[in-house]
Design goal:
This protein is an all-beta fold and 345 residues long. It has a domain of 148 residues: Kelch-type beta propeller (Neuraminidase, 6 Propeller), CATH 2.120.10.80. It is 1% helix and 42% strand. The chain has 1 helix and 25 strands.
C-alpha cells in the first residue's frame, strides 16, 4: 500500500490548510485558527514563532460537530456558549443550529459566520463525516429528556436541506462510537470500541453491511481515526495505531523523533483533557498531527504544534509502519486555549 522509499516533497496541488477549532478559556467562546501544514522547517528563518490571529465566533455553540466542504467550514449543533462552565452532574443543552464560514473571506469578522437551516434534533459532541459533498452527522449527546436515541442526519449544502438516515438492524454501542469516511469509495465506516463488529454504509444505495473485526487495539472515546483505502489510523498517548480491515492485522508503534519536536506532556493525559491530538491524512503516505503545549499549569500561554510525518509499510510476520517525523512547526496563540479538533482543506 505504501512504499518503503523516502517521501518526496508535497506538490503545490497537495498544499493544504488545517482549520483548528478551540475554546478561548478566557472568554469561553469558540475561536478558529488556520495553519498551513505543508511546511518543511521548525520555525522562521530566525527561529521565531509566528503568532496566529483567531477567527472569532462568539455566537457559534461549543462542542458541536465540525466539518469542511469545498471552501466552507460548518459548525453543527453543540452547547450554547453561556453553558460552558460545566459542573459535575450538570446537563448539556443541545441546540440544532448550523453555522457556516467562508474561508475565502479575506477580512473575517464575527459577522462572517452565517446561520443556515437547523437540524431536526439538537446534539452535543456529534460525529461528522463528509462524503460526496454531503455532511453526515452521527449521534452525539442529546439532552436530559429520555427518548429514542438519535441516529444520523444528512445535510446537503447545495440544497440547504436536512434528511434522516435509516439505521442498521442493530445500532452500534453509543459509548466509544466512531465514524470515518473511506476516501474515494463512497463509504462510511461506523463502529464502537465496545463492539466486535463494524458497519460499512454505502452512500450510493443507502445500504448497511455488517462486518466482524479482529482489532487488537481499541479506538478510545474522543479519538478520531482517519482512513486510507482499507486501513484505519489513530493516535493516542504517543503511539500511532493502525488496523487493516481486509487483512485484519493491527499495528502500534512510536513515531520516530516525535518527542524531539513536541514535549511529551502535550501528547498524553492529563494535559490533553478530553481532546486528544488530532491526526489527519495529508497526501499519499504523509500525515499531520496537531497538539497544544501549555507553558504553565495555569495555561497562560499556548503553542500549537503541527508535526508532519510519513509511514512506509514493511511486511513480514510483524508488520511495521515505520512512522517518522518529516518536519515540525510551532505557532503561538496569545490566549489560553483548549483544542477541540481540526479539519484539513
Amino acid at each position: 500500500m505504501f512504499s518503503a522509499s523516502s517521501s518526496p516533497p508535497l506538490s503545490r496541488s497537495h498544499e493544504k490548510t488545517a482549520y483548528v477549532r478551540a475554546i478561548n478559556l478566557n472568554e469561553e467562546e469558540m475561536e478558529f485558527y488556520s495553519v498551513p501544514i505543508n511546511h518543511d522547517g521548525s520555525g522562521g528563518e530566525d527561529g521565531s514563532v509566528r503568532v496566529l490571529t483567531p477567527i472569532k465566533a462568539p455566537n457559534v455553540p461549543l462542542h458541536g460537530g465540525f466539518a469542511a466542504v469545498d471552501n466552507k467550514l460548518y459548525c453543527i449543533g453543540g452547547d450554547p456558549p453561556s453553558d460552558y462552565l460545566y459542573k459535575p452532574r450538570s446537563v448539556y443543552r443541545p441546540v440544532r443550529s448550523l453555522y457556516t464560514f467562508d474561508t475565502s473571506c479575506r477580512l473575517p469578522t464575527k459577522s462572517s459566520w452565517k446561520k443556515r437551516s437547523s437540524m431536526r434534533t439538537g446534539r452535543v459532541f456529534p460525529l461528522t463525516v463528509v462524503v460526496y459533498g454531503k455532511i453526515f452527522v452521527f449521534q452525539g449527546m442529546y439532552g436530559p429528556n429520555p427518548g429514542p436515541r438519535p441516529w444520523v442526519e444528512v445535510f446537503d449544502p447545495k440544497s440547504g436541506r436536512w434528511t434522516s438516515l435509516s439505521p442498521p438492524s442493530q445500532l452500534p454501542t453509543g459509548y466509544g462510537l466512531f465514524a470515518v469516511a473511506l476516501p474515494g469509495l463512497g463509504k462510511i465506516l461506523v463502529g464502537s470500541c465496545e463492539d466486535e463488529f463494524l458497519y460499512i454504509y454505502y452512500v450510493g444505495d443507502g445500504t448497511w453491511e455488517r462486518r466482524d473485526h479482529k482489532m487488537v487495539y481499541d479506538i478510545p472515546c474522543n479519538v478520531k481515526p482517519v482512513a486510507i483505502k482499507t486501513m484505519l489510523f489513530w493516535f493516542q498517548d504517543c503511539y500511532l495505531y493502525a488496523y487493516d480491515m481486509m487483512d485484519k492485522w493491527s499495528y502500534s508503534g512510536c513515531i520516530k523523533d516525535l518527542v524531539k519536536v513536541v514535549p511529551l506532556d502535550s501528547l498524553k493525559p492529563p494535559n490533553v483533557g478530553l481532546f486528544y491530538p488530532t491526526l489527519h491524512h495529508v497526501a499519499d503516505n504523509v500525515f499531520s498531527l496537531l497538539c497544544l503545549e501549555y507553558f504553565s499549569g495555569t495555561h497562560q500561554a499556548t503553542l500549537l504544534h503541527c508535526v508532519k510525518f510519513s509511514i512506509s509499510v514493511q511486511g513480514g510476520e510483524d508488520v511495521n509502519l515505520n512512522p517518522t517525523v518529516m518536519s515540525a512547526k510551532a505557532y503561538g496563540i496569545q490566549t489560553p486555549m483548549s483544542i477541540l479538533d481540526a479539519v484539513v482543506m
